[in-house]
Design a protein that fits this description.
Number of strands: 14
CATH superfamily: Ribonuclease Z/Hydroxyacylglutathione hydrolase-like
CATH architecture: 4-Layer Sandwich
Strand order of the largest sheet: 6-5-4-3-2-1-14
Radius of gyration: 17 Å
Distance between the termini: 5 Å
Structural class: alpha/beta
Helix content: 10-25%
Shape: globular
Number of helices: 7
Number of domains: 1
């Protein structure tokens, strides 16, 4: 299993970067997790959009889905230029029917609803879901393949249910939108201390902090998380890869 960071930013991308977007690969299958603003531009330095095998979406805030339309048109145009591609599946919840309907576009992409209480098989990945604490319906995801596991929290404030959901995962890709002296619960986001606590009590193998704030000294997030979690901690950044 290989994880590559495309977009680490929360809310909106910094200049020449991207908001939420991550590639997860196993056995040649390439899955894009979320598709925020700037993701298509940054993605193309690593992987052509016509080579994606699937997309999965945590929720419908713009910093997680802004480039879905751009992805659709990239594949449409490449099809006009003669490249042969299958209809790309985009997995998401359909609780917001209007937003979900946009995921299906001509014969280019097809929206496929996931059922949060059921295991979803996407290529080699078995995916399970946990509803998060966020202003809109959002789901954390646990990806398992080849005896390895990765948790992507999506957007959420800390909730106890995430502990069992994340238990013993190899990687915790954890949102960290606030510093330790702040309170992110009303906004539906975690602090550095929350991220460290989740990593610690869930006994994960390593912690990657993502959905980063646009202010302050980002290394402070690591330092604060490290007061609770003693395992490896990294800040998400474009191009960071972790292979299990």
């Amino acid at each position: 299993m290989k994880l590559t960071i495309i977009g680490p930013w929360g809310g909106y991308p910094k200049a020449n970067e991207a908001s939420a977007g991550y590639i997860l690969e196993h056995e040649g299958f390439k899955l894009l997790i979320d598709c925020g603003s700037g993701v298509l531009s940054k993605l193309q330095t690593i992987l052509e959009p016509e080579h994606l095998d699937g997309v999965i979406i945590s929720h419908y805030h713009a910093d997680h889905i802004a480039d879905i339309g751009v992805l659709q048109h990239a594949r449409l145009i490449q099809g006009f230029l003669g490249k042969k591609m299958d209809n790309l599946p985009i997995y998401a919840h359909d609780i917001n029917a209007e937003k979900f309907s946009v995921l299906t576009y001509k014969e280019v992409t097809k929206g496929i609803p996931y059922q949060p209480g059921e295991v979803l098989q996407v290529g080699p990945f078995s995916v399970t879901f946990q509803k998060t604490n966020h202003p809109v319906e959002c789901y954390a995801m646990r990806f398992e393949a080849g005896g390895r596991s990765l948790i992507y929290t999506g957007d959420t404030s800390f909730k106890e249910e995430l502990v069992a959901f994340s238990k013993n995962a190899d990687i915790l890709l954890c949102e960290c939108n606030f510093y330790g002296d702040q309170n992110g619960s009303n906004a539906g986001h975690m602090t550095s201390f929350d991220s460290g606590k989740l990593a610690n009590v869930a006994s994960v193998g390593q912690l990657i902090l993502t959905h980063l704030p646009h202010y302050g000294r980002l290394e402070q997030l690591k330092e604060e998380a490290a007061t609770i979690y003693k395992g490896p901690i990294q800040l998400a950044q474009f191009g960071l890869t972790v292979t299990l």
